[in-house]
Specification:
The chain is α/β, with parallel strands linked by helices and about 210 residues long. The protein has seven helices and five strands. Helix 7 links the parallel strand 4 and strand 5. Helix 2 packs antiparallel against helix 4. The protein starts with a helix and ends in a 5-residue tail after the last strand.
């Protein structure tokens, strides 16, 4: 009885996979009973069949002795595997989000730190590096507005053309425009138009200084 209670308590642990343990019990029972009963049944010996039936208690005990440790082992391994996999999936979620994020941060003016330099920005794209997202920074510094937006479009098109594992996971493409330091009137609207022309891109205006995707 103490063994039964101990097993029941063990099976109630959150990391124990009861379904897998039950499947293991069924498989072991079928295999053991098949190994014992099937040869007798095929031999069509009435005496043999009666002998098996008569020793039913011993047979049940033998099945339990084999099935119990197998079930405990299977349930434990499966439970821990699912727990580990679940943790890995949660850890990977921020990485997937970052892979489909494209950041635009403006460089501050030396004379007025709250204002951005004209036509100067840093584009940040992300790539998977182990269980984290690594940053790839691409500075854009031009003398004229059209040249600046041309370089920005080029970076945007490169990013959109590269398929990521986040695409397979159904994550949308997101462009974050960081507005501190302030780039001036109309800059965000121009960038938003560039993104919307390509379709399938969510544009987010962030009223803060740039920080890496989490």
């Amino acid at each position: 009885m103490n063994v039964v209670l101990a097993v029941a308590e063990y099976a109630n642990q959150p990391w124990f996979d009861f379904k897998i343990a039950l499947v293991a019990v069924v498989i072991v029972t079928v295999v053991v009973l098949g190994a014992v009963v099937l040869p007798v049944a095929l031999g069509a010996s009435a005496t043999g069949v009666l002998a098996v039936v008569g020793s039913g208690a011993k047979l049940v005990g033998a099945v339990a002795a084999i099935a119990l440790p197998v079930a405990v082992t299977a349930g434990t391994l499966s439970g821990w595997a699912k727990k580990a996999w679940g943790t890995e999936q949660k850890a990977a979620e921020p990485v997937l989000q970052a892979l489909n994020q494209f950041d635009i941060a403006f460089e501050a003016s030396a004379a007025e730190p709250k204002q951005a330099k004209d036509f100067s920005a840093v584009v940040v794209r992300y790539r998977a590096s182990g269980d984290k997202a690594a940053e790839d920074r691409h500075p854009i510094r031009e003398d004229r507005g059209e040249a600046f937006y041309y370089q920005l479009e080029s970076q945007l098109d490169q990013w959109l053309s590269q398929h990521t594992s986040a695409d397979n996971a159904g994550k949308c493409r997101k462009v974050c425009v960081y507005m501190s330091p302030y780039p001036g009137e109309g800059v965000y609207e121009r960038i938003k138009q560039l993104c919307e022309r390509r379709g399938g891109v969510v544009v987010s205006r962030v009223e803060a200084a740039w920080s890496a995707a989490q």
